[in-house]
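Hi all, long-time lurker, first post. I run a small reading group and we've been trying to get comfortable going from sequence to structure in the token notation. Rather than ask abstract questions, I figured I'd post a concrete chain and ask someone more experienced to write out its structure so we can walk through it together at our next meeting. Sequence below, copied exactly:
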Amino acid sequence: MSYERIAEVFGQVFRLTVSRSTLARALLRLSDKAEPTYNQLLTEIRQAPVVYPDETGWRVGGLKAWLWTATTLTATAYLIEHGRGYPEAVKLLGETFAGVIGADGWAPYRRFTRAQRQLCLAHLLRRCKELLEAPPNADCAAYFTEIKLVLQQALALRGRRGDVTERTFRRNQRRIERAMDTLLDEPDLHDESLRFAEHLVRNRDALFLFLDRPDVEATNFRAEQAIRPAVINRKTSGGNRTRSGATAQAVLMSILRTCKLRSISALEAFRLILSAPIPIPLLLER
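-- Answer (accepted) --
Happy to help. Here is the structure in token form:
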């Protein structure tokens, strides 16, 4: 909601007259008090065994920017920056991140050399679908179909984890990985298939980590869920007018989303933050 609409709600529901500038200053003050809690969330994200990051277009002061997010099962942090490269990813994940990054194929994530990666299979399957809808020739279409089939087999095998013995699971996993290696060793000799094969080769170690690690998702749907409210916000507000407003938005959204993940009251969390005599980290309940 815009500040103007919020002011209308205060007037109609609570019979309180409040200006848009007062609301803006109040949120900036709340953000300042909540910054230690935000930094605590960043620390949790950077120490997590598995993190799902994503980014989407944004605007600050009318200039192009990016809203980043990184989420786990119990914490989410947002960051708004003007860039979409490795330096901005470091601000979110930390340069020494050593867990698993579950993301799409965006190149900056490959620069976290201490981390393992899991490529989002949903992105790969969507790419296969796009290529199959406009194939350059029948041979190329057959190649994309085979890659799609191997990816789907991997997802199906994950779904059967626990229903088959560990030995059977690993045997099927090796069969799937050999099938993918064969496809990547002998790509269809056309531009689109070569580019797609090269992308998969660059990310070969990140294709099937989820089969080795039950705690790793095959897609980055958690990050997409975390970023969806921001996309809706962008469509209604267009972004932030100032750098300080962008910082406040990232801080407050991070706490709101984390409270939702932990099924605790965001209003109570903000009450505790505001009532603290000095800004201190608030250890959010799990």
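A couple of things your group might point at:
The first strand starts at residue 50 and ends at 60.
Residues 121-212 form one domain.
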